[in-house]
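agent> step 3/5: call structure_predict on target 'RNA-binding S4 domain-containing protein' (Actinomyces timonensis).
agent> reason: downstream docking stage needs a structural representation; sequence fetched in step 2, passing through unchanged.
tool.input:
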Amino acid sequence: MPYPTILVRGEIKLGQFLKLADLVEDGAEARIAIQSGDVSVNGQVERRRGHRLSDGDAVEIALPSGSAGARVRVEA
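tool.output (status=ok):
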């Protein structure tokens, strides 16, 4: 199943994107998920909350109920 595309303006960090895409409830949950290795960007585990995302990046998070994700679309 394809993930939804989330439109962002300019630069966005991984932790911010997880919240914007409603993949986590808050920054604390984003931090925990990232630090525990439950978040990947383009299929690679990413453990830096401040990782800057680029247009077209696919972000996925492993959840107890399965996985969820979203794709980044940067608006200039």
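agent> step 4/5: record observation. The chain has one domain: 5-75.
agent> proceeding.
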